[in-house]
Design brief:
about 300 residues, mainly alpha, Multidrug-efflux Transporter Regulator, Chain: A, Domain 2
């Protein structure tokens, strides 16, 4: 019977697929002790050694160190405890590897300088508390004093990145680029200008909702016009500009005149900042949301269309 059979190291090596040298090393370390010795003094092992060596090989493949393995096989530690500890350690290692991959990929794709690479590396390694402070500081700059209004509080929440603990490399790359934008004083000023514009318009009604509707007009009217190759300076663009002006006049509760067109142009330039479009795209990646439709080109078309008519 196998339970009574004793195996030499060579026979044990053939049964387990391990080398004689490896088994002898494990035996010397007390991990797989011999059951007996032959009359010539050679080590002999029973069938339990086969199972023990299979476990040792599995744990080694999973990265468990030999001292810990010895405690497991001697039942000083439960396999469950060891598995939990190593799973946690692997999660940390995976996160570090994701961070490194994100930085190196960005350096490759964006051709970053040494200084930019250093900044990106630091941003990628921020702790959760440091990330939240950066996010809060940026959003306070944009919404400070205004987010008591429930509408603006909702907008603020919708603009908040929430990077998961188990973030993928793509999410980490997006977070780092988001953080670079958030640290840009010029972009912060642009966001504040946009929010203050919304606040001024809010006095005339639900500006947040109405501006969202104006964005829908741009998407539904300007998008097809661009696709059809309509020049923003042509007469074919007149009805679209009229629709934009009429909608914006409704938001402000004032007539469509030269001043209204000036305000409309300022709003388009503020909201149509391509960096804001990029912000929304990055936010979707970080938060795992569906990719948003880019309206940057449609806003550029609208800006040209309104501006050329003001200059006539």
């Amino acid at each position: 019977m196998d339970g009574d059979t004793l195996y030499s190291i060579g026979e044990l090596a053939r049964r387990t697929g391990l080398t004689v040298k490896t088994i002898r090393y494990y035996s010397d370390r007390g991990i797989v002790a011999p059951t007996d010795r032959s009359p010539a003094g050679y080590r002999l092992y029973n069938i339990d050694a086969v199972a023990r060596l299979d476990l040792v090989r599995t744990l080694r493949d999973l990265g468990v160190d030999l001292p810990t393995i010895r405690r497991v096989v001697e039942r000083e530690l439960s396999l469950r405890e060891v598995a939990a500890a190593h799973a946690e350690a692997l999660a940390v290692q995976i996160r570090v590897l994701h961070l490194r991959q994100a930085v190196l990929t960005a350096v490759t794709e964006r051709g970053l300088t040494a200084e930019e690479t250093d900044l990106m590396h630091k941003l990628a390694q921020l702790s959760e508390d440091e990330r939240r402070r950066l996010i809060g500081d940026f959003l306070d700059d944009a919404f400070g004093g205004l987010d008591a209004d429930s509408a603006f509080a909702g907008v603020r929440r919708s603009m908040t990145p929430e990077i998961p603990d188990s973030a993928e490399a793509e999410q980490i790359r997006a977070w780092v680029e988001w953080a670079e934008l958030a640290l840009d004083p010029d972009f912060r000023a642009s966001m504040r200008q946009m929010v203050e514009g919304l606040a001024a318009e809010q006095a005339h009604g639900n500006a947040v909702g109405l501006c969202r509707d104006l964005g829908a007009v741009i998407r539904d009217r300007v998008g097809p016009a661009r696709a059809a190759g309509i020049d923003p300076a042509s007469h074919q663009a007149d009805p679209i500009v009229e629709a934009l002006a009429t909608h914006y006049a409704h938001i402000l509760g004032r007539p469509d005149d030269a001043e209204l067109r000036r305000l409309l142009l300022a709003w388009l330039e503020s909201v149509g900042d391509p960096r804001r479009d990029r912000y929304v795209q990055l936010l979707a990646v970080i938060n795992g949301w569906p990719a948003p439709e880019s309206l940057s080109a449609a806003f550029n078309w609208s800006i040209q269309a309104v501006r050329v008519r003001m200059e006539r």
